[in-house]
Design goal:
The protein is of the alpha/beta class. It has 16 helices and 13 strands. The structure holds uridine-diphosphate-N-acetylglucosamine.
């Protein structure tokens, strides 16, 4: 079976690494990079470090408004599907690249498989939520990371083609943590000691496009009782300039981190402050307390077990929760690290 995989943004590269390896044992894979992320540190470095095969197609779409970016991808992916005639199109997560890949395939009557199906924040103001819902509703095979995701789909009447596989990010993390320990020198490079610092990431539109929210978050960081390592996404860096925000002296602003450095800094952090979905889950798996700079999350299991807390952009709550630390119960709620193998097997059963 020819599987056409569509990726484009940083978290998708991490997810596709183990899946692609599993797929290529039994299928022919054509890898399409939409070009949604194009900076070396958001894209190429992940292909290099995770050993992802070079994309067969690079669509070079780049940045733009949602309509422009998604529309360009839709047209370009359609052309590739027309040329390659795949048996299935595989998409990941919830970005504009995900929706464009799924929609292009569905309109051409090519079956769509969605990795990380069924996630819901129930907040339609998040572009990712719109992407999730629409992608799931035009997918033929839905690979759910959690039982909650399966239930979310059932509540929307989606039950056919739904598989509980576990989360491929667990596969990626398990595979790469030993390599990170061996190869990353991030702690010594930054002069940090284990549990002697916080790690922060902020890139969601809800925080970056609201000057009051971004200011409140940065003020909270300035009040924390330890250094805050803050790898800054390019969109957030642009907003610092636009809103004239200068990070405080205890905030160590660094470039976006390669995966091995991120895993190392995350596992050594006293707590992580983030608005990323993937980081909330990685923190849970690594048993690091997480303070989520959002009002909702699609990874509710992390809250139920006590490792994560939602604080929005409220400075006092951010400081109180980060310094409190937290922690809780722990189980393999996100799977056993063999999700990628299951996905490859299910695709094999599906296809000719
Ligand atoms: C996208 C996803 C988000 C995901 C994130 C992972 C959507 C709607 N959002 O957000 O779900 O969590 O990726 O990082 O698809 N930019 C650069 N260089 C790049 C890419 C982007 O400078 O390589 C800047 C540009 O100013 C661009 C802005 O970042 O306009 C936003 O990029 P975009 O691809 O629209 O969304 P992300 O914020 O990266």
């Amino acid at each position: 079976m020819k599987v056409l995989s569509v990726v484009g943004a940083r978290p998708q590269f991490i997810k596709c690494a183990p899946v692609s390896r599993g797929l290529r044992k039994v299928h022919e894979e054509v890898l399409v990079h939409t070009g949604q992320h194009y900076d070396y540190l958001l894209s190429e470095v992940f292909f290099r470090d995770l050993g992802i095969p070079a994309p067969d197609y690079h669509l070079d779409i780049g940045s733009g408004s949602h309509g422009v970016q998604t529309g360009r991808m839709l047209a370009a992916v359609e052309e590739v599907i027309g040329k390659e005639e795949p048996g299935i199109v595989l998409v990941y997560g919830d970005t504009n690249s995900t929706l464009a890949g799924a929609l292009a395939a569905a309109k051409m009557h090519v079956p769509v498989a969605h990795v990380e199906a069924g996630l819901r924040s129930f907040d339609r103001r998040m572009p990712e939520e719109v992407n999730r819902v629409l992608t799931d509703h035009c997918s033929d095979i839905l690979f759910c990371p959690t039982a909650t995701a399966v239930a979310n789909l059932a509540a929307e009447g989606v039950t056919a083609g739904v598989h509980l596989t576990g989360d491929v990010m667990v596969d990626a993390l398990r595979e790469n943590l030993p390599l990170a320990k061996e190869r990353s020198t991030a702690l010594t490079d930054l002069g940090l000691s284990r549990k002697g610092y916080y790690l922060a990431t902020v890139h969601r539109a809800g925080n970056t496009d609201d000057p009051a929210a971004l200011r409140a978050i940065m003020e909270a960081f300035s009040r924390l009782d330890a250094p805050v390592v803050f790898p800054v996404h390019p969109r957030t860096r642009k907003k610092f300039t636009e809103y004239r925000i200068t990070p405080a002296a205890n905030v160590r602003v660094v470039e976006p981190l390669p995966y091995f450095d991120m895993l190392t800094l995350l596992s050594g952090a006293r707590a992580v402050l983030t608005d990323s979905g993937g980081v909330q889950k990685e923190a849970y798996i690594l048993e690091v307390p997480c303070v989520t700079l959002r009002e909702n999350t699609e990874w509710v299991e992390t809250l139920e077990d006590g490792w994560n807390v939602l604080v929005g952009a409220d400075a006092d709550r951010i400081v109180a929760e980060a310094e409190r630390g937290g922690g809780g119960r722990h189980s393999a709620r996100f799977g056993d690290g063999h999700a990628a193998a299951r996905i490859a097997a299910i695709i094999r059963e599906f296809g000719p």
